[in-house]
Amino acid sequence: MQTDLSAALDIGGTKIAGALVDAQGRLVVRAARPTPADQDGATVMRAVAEVVRELAAAPEWARVAAVGIGSAGPVDAAAGTVSPVNIPGWRDFPLVAGVRALAGELPVTLVGDGVAMTAAEHWQGAARGHDNALCMVVSTGVGGGLVLDGRLHPGPSGNAGHIGHISVDLDGDPCPCGARGCVERIASGPNIARRALANGWRPGPDGDASAAAVAAAARAGDPVALSSFERAGQALAAGIAATATLVEIDIAVIGGGVAGAGDVLFDPLRTALRDYATLSFVSGLTVVPAQMGTDAGVVGAAAAAAQRSRLDAFTPAP
Q: InterPro entries attached here (predicted)?
């Protein structure tokens, strides 16, 4: 029997998605359950088990060579544990051991969700053909991952490239991570909205005070809303430029809900990047929107598992 599929799990605070993914990045079989994030760890694991068992019941499971997990973090790939901020019942939870037992002792690879998104964008998306890339998720939080020398670089713990907690404002607001002035504290959706409200922006009659509503106001010309997105773009540009200077990436890919703001975010980001990425070896750095959408988590988890298992079929095409 040919073993040309990877099983993949994408675990977040809202949904646990699973899929069997083929060598072209197609989702052959899908399964999903809501994440019981307010329940204890065993209850959350039961939801994971339901997804894995549904996938394993498909005839195509016999073709699975490896399992990949992309999880909200922090994760510890070396220990096989996860401690997602948005799943309080999981603290140092032995997820890899639990999934391996469910998956018939197949090899299991764990990475953070930002690293999984990076793997997907490098394999099939906007970073395809680039040997050195930073991919980012800008949403409720800010995460990311790195591709270096043509390969996903998750780091020893599975968290490498977590740009959201680079400090870009040394005297800035305290971040929940314990540092100050982190990219996430400035550029995440909730913080874009928080800053706009603090500076006098007010929601419309529907009361929507989300970053999406701030983006709509910015598109309509509201100066406070525009200013909040400009500040977010500046923070992202500073973090991207610092990363590029350190490891010589040539492209940054940005996905997540905040990226849906489009030019409201990307225009000030690219303008600010010209001020920060000034050295000759980073001045050609480009920033583009992500392409993989909501399937990025499972596609990237499959790619990460395949890379670790050295499946040549999953090598990104030029």
A: ATPase_NBD, ROK, ROK_cs
Low-confidence ranges of the chain (pLDDT < 70): 1-2, 309-318
151-152 sheet: strands from edge to edge: 151-152, 142-148, 133-138, 251-255, 286-289
DSSP string, 188-219: SHHHHHHHHHHTT----TT---SHHHHHHHHH
Residue type at position 188: S
| Residue 297 DSSP SS3 | helix
88 and 155 share one domain? no
The answer on 148 and 269 residing in a single domain is yes
Q: Which domain holds residue 300?
A: 5-112+294-314
* pLDDT at residue 308, rounded to an integer: 73
Q: What does the alpha-carbon distance between residue 146 and residue 249 come to, in Å, rounded to a whole number?
A: 9
CA distance linking residue 171 with residue 167, whole number of Å: 9
What secondary structure, in 3-state letters, does 26-79 show?
A: CEEEEEEEECCCCCCHHHHHHHHHHHHHHHHCCHHHHHEEEEEEEECCCEECCC
Does residue 171 lie in a domain region?
yes
CA distance 5 to 19: 10
Q: Extract the tokens encoding 257.
A: 């809900």
Whole-model pTM?
Answer: 0.87
Residue with tokens 């799990």: 9
- CATH code, domain carrying 230: 3.30.420.40
